[in-house]
Design goal:
By secondary structure, this protein is mainly β. It is built from two helices and 13 strands. The strands form two sheets. Strands 1-2-3-4-5-6-7-8-9-10-12 form an eleven-stranded parallel sheet, with no helix packed on it. The protein has a two-stranded parallel sheet with strand order 11-13. It is elongated, with a radius of gyration of 20 Å.
């Protein structure tokens, strides 16, 4: 009769989650956050009443996830492992009730599965080498209720410059955007959502100063640049820029030598 089971940070013997987990058919909440798991049993297909499932493991090696999530059609919250093996192929198109989805991978799941997830508010997408940007962009266009969107890279795709492929201005409700991907320069301001309030830039290695673009996004309240988001030497914040900014956080930019903040910025 168990409804809630939190196994966060548990180290399972041999890395195997016991198959008996499938007997807990009334579970609504299951968390394996930070757990050491190398094997998931197919009996998880029996957990059809789950509302929340967190599979953000602390796994060094890629894990195989059996294609059983498609049967958990009540799910509202789903967090997938960042490291899944090449044999993992997931069908998620029937999870139409999802509001939170982290770790959606273009390598392990078809981008068209997003088309029916129109209730999504939060989405984190892992980009792969085999990503079809045209298909992904058209699928994302259907997610008109998104409030938070994150793009991040898998290790094999870190050196690929992605962001020239995306236009995000159709996300009229998007408030938060995280770009954890390589890009030589930041997209033009007209490519950003019109009411964006928070932006996070990590690992981008931008060669051009992003401030002339970011300061024109009129609704921005917070900006964070971290871990070599910018690899240039000079950054300028101009007079009249960032009219609503409340917080600016810059960290781990080893190439940055000069930061000019004009009066009235």
């Amino acid at each position: 009769l168990l409804r809630v089971l939190d196994l966060s940070w548990v180290k399972f013997e041999g890395g195997k989650l016991p198959s008996s987990i499938g007997g807990l058919i009334h579970l609504r909440y299951l968390s394996l956050y930070g757990a050491v798991v190398s094997h998931l049993p197919s009996t998880m297909r029996n957990l059809k009443l789950l509302l929340s499932l967190n599979l953000s493991f602390d796994n060094e090696e890629p894990i195989h996830v059996p294609n059983v999530l498609k049967e958990m059609i009540q799910l509202r919250y789903l967090s997938l492992p960042l490291k899944m093996d090449d044999k993992t192929k997931l069908e998620l198109g029937d999870l139409v009730n999802l509001k939170y989805l982290w770790g959606f991978s273009t390598q392990h799941t078809s981008a068209t599965d997003l088309l029916r997830m129109t209730k999504l508010r939060y989405l984190g997408v892992s980009l792969s080498e085999r990503c079809n940007f045209e298909t992904l962009s058209s699928s994302l266009r259907e997610l008109r209720n998104l409030e938070t969107l994150n793009f991040f890279f898998s290790p094999e795709t870190y050196k690929v410059d992605y962001m020239g492929e995306f236009v995000l201005d159709h996300f009229i409700h998007l408030k938060e955007l995280g770009l954890f991907v390589r890009m030589s320069k930041i997209p033009d301001q007209h490519q950003f959502p019109p009411h964006l309030t928070h932006i996070y830039l990590f690992y981008c290695r931008m060669e051009q100063d992003p401030m002339p673009i970011l300061e024109k996004l009129l609704h921005l309240k917070s900006v964070r640049l971290a871990v070599e988001a910018f690899v240039g030497r000079r950054m300028v914040c101009s007079k009249g820029g960032f009219p609503q900014l409340c917080a600016l956080r810059i960290s781990e930019q080893p190439e940055l030598e000069e930061w000019i903040v004009e009066e009235g910025s």
